[in-house]
Amino acid sequence: MTFRDSSLFVRVHSILPARTSLQSSFNRHLLPAQRTGRALWGRSIRSLRELHRHLASTSSSIVLDMAYIRILPGAVVTAGLLSIAAHADSSVTTTPPDPAAGLLTSIDAIDDAATVKKAQLSDFAAATIIAYQNSDALPDAPAPIIGSLLNAGIAITETVDGILVTSDSNGVAAIGHPSGSAVQLNVRNGGSIVTSGNQNPGFRVAGSGNATEINLESDGRISTTGTGSAALQLGGGHHAVGFSEAGIDTSGNQSAGIDVALGGSGAFLLESNGRPADRPVIRTIGNYAPGVNILDSGNSTFAFDINDAPDVVTEPGFQTQGDFSPLFNVLGGGQSSLSFSSTNSSFATLGNWSTGMNFCFAESSDMLVLLESLSALTTGENAPVLATRMGSGSINNLAAIDVALTTNGDGSSAVHQRMNGENYGHSVFLAESSVVTTGSDSPGIFLDSSVGSADAANRTVTLLNSTITTGGDRSSGLLVDGLGDGSAMTITLTGVEISTVGDDSRGLLEGSLGADSAFSSTIEDSTLSTMGVRSTALELGAVNLVSSVRSVEMKTVDLSTDGDNSAAAFLRLFPETPSGTPAGSTTVLSWDDVTLNTEGNSSPGLLIGATDIATGYGAGVDVMSMAMSGDNTNITTLGANAPGMIVHGFGDDVTNSDFTLSLENHTISTAGTYAFGMQLNISSGSATQLTSTTVLNQIDIDTQGALSFGLSLGNVTGFVGDSNTTSMTTFFDNVTIDTQGDFAIGFLLDPVGTDNVDFIATTTGDHTTITTSGRLAPGLVLGNGLGLSVEGTPTLPASISNLALSNLSITTSGMYSDALQLSSDTALTISSDVLGTAAPDGGIFAGTIDNFDSLVATGEGSRAVRNYGIIHGGDDGIILASGTVGNFANDGTIMSSGDVALTYGATDDIFELGPEGIVMGRVEAGLGTDTLVLGGDIPLPELDDDLFPDEGTFDHTLIDTQYVDFEQIVLNTYTHWELTGGDTALSLLPVSVARGVLIVNSNLTGLEVTTSGNGTLRGNGSISTLLNNGIFSPGGDGAIGTFGIANDLTLGASGVLAVDITSAGTSDTVNVTGVANLSGALVVNGIGYPAGYPGSQNYTIINADSVSGTFSNIYDNLPDVNVLATYNADNVVIGYTGAGSASDNSAPDRPDDNPLADVEADLRAAIEATDGAISIGEDEDGDTALLLETDWNETLASNAPDLPDTHQVFLSPDAVSDKSIYPNTLQAAGHAARLFADTVQRRAMLGALPDPSDTSASAEHAYGTSGNASATQRYSGWGSLLGSSTNVDAGAAVSGYESDTGGFALGGDAAFEAGNDSLMRLGFAFGNTQSNVGSGLSSADIGIWHIGAYGVFEKGPLIASAALTYGFGDYELSRVIPITGSPSALAKGDTDGNTFAVSLAASYDIADRIGLSQENNLRLAPIVRFDHVNAHLGGYTETGAGILNQSVSASDWSRSWAGVGIQVSAAYEMQSGMVIKPALEIRYDYAFGNDNALVNSAITGISSGNFTTPGAGEARNSLSLGAGMAVDFNANFSAHFQYNGSYSGSTDTHQASAGLTFRF
């Protein structure tokens, strides 16, 4: 040991003076250590205090009561690997405790301090929250209490004051103490303890039963660099660590900042009050190196009070940088208590599995975490900022104000708090804070109850004025697990913004609670948005139906989602499969000033109730109450299968329950297919003693897609009650509904449903406006949709829906879209009478519709009122007010208590009678021209045969007895009607047949009939007159009959007379008592032909007083004979002979005038648009039908109800829709641009360029004249006619195309000298091309105006030319869509576009160089050429094809050609002076760029109906051949002709031009 400028004092006071022995012992341990290079006090001496202990143990006769080593100022002491360097006014001192004091006193001091600090932090947390809620200034943090807990009187005191203590030993501490020590360590005034060895802690207290107080202040610091070297390593016991502008660092792996093995029943207190401005308080760098790591077995107390913010912060005050290095890690057993407070602090961890704060305790523990003005960041995977876990019977409280919590790794929630077991309390308070996670599987805040039953638990969550943002998949913003039976949960969000980006990432997701529970959710002034799929913005949990209470309140909330299967809000309220005996539950739901927007498919705006529509909530419940109210709500959805709002109430078998729904000031808009505006289902099954009340006020609903009902109010399968104990009350006022899609009912009102007994509903409506514009889109439907009529004698069911509709306005404009429709299972009585006794199913609407004045249906086949059920008009029947156009259809039953069933006003009215329509009473049409329509089958293709009856009878004797004041009868549906009532010569109403079949088997000689289109007259009766422009078939198909015409018969030019003949010589016959005026077609059907038919035979088919005219065509099904007609004065005879050909002479199909012929294709397009929500399957009867099987969300598993029967449609194979016309038109436009550029470029190549003043031979060659060109001829004007034809073969699944183009080009140019014996001509041109394109069945017309510039350069044998053109034009496209069994649909588009083209060519004359004769100016020149075109087609939307219209995106096509070949030309001067210049060219071209164009399109308004269509592929290699001739008539006037053909395997192009040139 070296002593320099100092003295070493070892002072011993003992009861036995033995200084020599003491010195000897000291030397034995000290001096050998110096010689062997071991630690300062030898292998077994670890610190100054251990020296004391060692000296005391060397002799039983020596007892130490005080010993110290003092290193005076200026001294340097070295020994082994320890260096203690002192500077002026500083010292390190070790002081032993008073012998009278004990370890227990120190332990008590630490315990008391921890208890006091916990109490302070609890008060501080409560005061902070109260101050924030009262908008008061937040209180200051508690004052530090560490610093003088232990002193020289009760514990060893060691002070590192302004000096550096270093150690590089492995396995030893710089300063260490054994088990059972009471120590106070002070490091201050820049003092430092530094170690560099492995397992070389800065300070260590080993074992257990310790009491330590560690104070680091005034830039004091402890640093280690080795592996396994904690800055502070503390054993079991009771510890207090205080930082005041001081800190610790470790850089080795497995080197915690503070490593505590507390052991149980201990205490740990940490305070941090300020930090150095340039260094953190705690920093670890290595892996497995926590900042603070505490392991405990339970029953311990932990208190952290942290405030580390200096005036200038350069890096986080507490940080770890390695993997598996949590910043604060406390793992304790049961019955533990932790209080953690951080104010004005900053935390960071950089490694994976490195949580910021990780606190885990077993059962019966309590935890308080208070974070104020904290900035915390973790960047690694599986590294939450705060992670806690607690066992049963525990209490966990988190309060965070003005914090910023950020995680960047996967699996890293900002906050993840798990409560295990049961019987626990959990509260979260977050205010003025920001939470951000960017990784996958990283919810912003995750409150976890996934382990254990969670029974008897209580959780309160309050978020105020804060933001939560997540970026990864499966990363919800706020994820709150449910609780078990007997629990309570309250969730409050105010001023909160939550946004998520990833898939499966909800904004707020709440779990459910068990039986006997209370669950409250309040959301106010908040915004929740998601962008991913399956990411509902708000998903609220449910409670079990056993004695539970559920309340939800939302006010001023904005909810939005962008992804598919992502509802804006899903409020589950109650589980669909309750446990226990469901009874005694209550739910209250209210919302106000809420905005909900969704953009994805299968993404409802607001979904309330069951996840399963078919079952609803609360199956089998008893004594249940549900109350819902909403106000000032705006809902918008854009996707297919995305309803605006759906409310589902109770499930099946509900008893003794009530339901209340009140909605005001709601605006709902949906754009997609099968996207209802609002659907309200009160119950999905049977109900007993159920009372419901629904109020709708100021509701505005707009839907745009097909199959998108506006408002559906009622239930799925209906109620079944007993003894009038089940009732439903509905009131709606100021409701406006507008649907625009096909099959989109405006308002479906079905409060009763089917299979009901003793059910009473009251429905009152006022100021309701309904508008629909799609096909088959009724305005108001009473009942569950269209269906079969009631058969037999009408009776009314006992279930009654009292109905009162006032100020009702309904307008429909689509085909077959009725204003008001009454379903087959429904009855409407417009009086207070109680009628009938019972019916198998259905229900009564008993009450009033104040008038039908405002029921307007303007579309073809549409009626103001269409009845399939029962309507009772009271004593006076149904009265349509004077001035109202009556438009009424009945395929059910209408009746009254009096004689009149229906009375019209003094207008032109329509009454349509269906095949099974029953009218009990008179129908009085009144004044005006009134029409009786024989109706029935809606003209849908291939309808289910059972849907509508296709045969009906009408007794003509009812005219003027039951059907009064009608002026005409019309048959305009695909139904067969027979006029019955026996023979009569009385004048009857004229009948017009436009569709369907009129059968007359009676002698009705006062009847006038007119047929048109596919309207057919058949039978064996007689009428007065017939004007036939449809089909007249005496007898009928395949049956021989005779039909009489009492006056004239007129067979129009578009009509058909169809007659049957037999082998026996009989035929259908028409007997006309008047003139038979013939025209149109005769169709002859040989029954059973050719069996039994002789070689020739004649038939008389018409007998008349006189015959005028002939048939325009005769068709037959007799392929090997000719059928001829003989027109006599009073008859027409047809006959055949065997001299005919075997060609088919059958009649062509008549055009189908069905206005709904394309409905099948539209339905299929709608099916595709719903992405599986609608499919094709079998209905209950096994018939092919549309099935709606919706999955709004994978977690919701929702099933939509079947469509009404109207929409159960047979479907034939897919229609083919060839969209190749889009890209092929674009390619054709490119070829038109190339044609114009080529014409202009070749104009430049017509001859060389003379010096304008040169009259030499070269000039003669250039002009091809006799040499009389002069300076006055340097300018030229020219014009050309041009044309081309391009044919590109079809490819796999791609149609080819043909394009024919014609046009003109005009231009002018000037020649001048370019120097160095070179000449140049520059010019300008413009023109127009018109192209017609054919692609499959589709076509397009293209008109393009072109402008361009061109030039030519000549120097000796070299000639180079160029042309640059631009075109702008108009495109008109017509796309034909074939539809199976129906006429094709035609989709038309009109757009604009532009073209750009370049044409370059150069040739070099080699004729003279290879010795060819120059006679006739022979020119042999290799040629190189380059052409490029770009064509642009603007975007547009088709019209004319309904739902099959496509929205076509803007598109471009570019292609280039490079060619090499040879030109041969000559000039022959005629005696007249005219010069003829022929030319030939052969060239190989190679094309590069895009072989075909690609065009994107989509079914209009449907996000999933997207297509990318390629054009026909054009060949790359081609051979071009050209031939031309120029004729110079004189020096001023010439003509030219040119042909070019391009040939390849799949693409052929032919171009030609001819023009004139004038020179001056």
Question: Describe it for me?
Answer:
The protein has 1560 residues and is mostly beta strands. It is built from six helices and 101 strands. The chain has a 40-stranded mixed β-sheet that branches. It has a twelve-stranded antiparallel beta barrel with strand order 85-86-87-88-89-90-91-94-96-99-100-101. The chain starts with 18 loop residues before the first helix and ends with a strand. The N terminus is likely disordered.
Features of this protein?
101 strands, 7% helix, 1560 residues, 6 helices, twelve-stranded antiparallel beta barrel, disordered N terminus, mainly beta
Write a brief structural summary.
By secondary structure, the protein is mostly beta strands.
Strand count, sense and barrel status of the largest sheet are: 40 strands, mixed
Strands, total number:
101
Which range best describes the helical content: under 10%, 10-25%, 25-40%, 40-55%, 55-70% or over 70%?
A: under 10%
Write down the oligomeric state.
single chain
Q: Overall 3D geometry?
A: flat
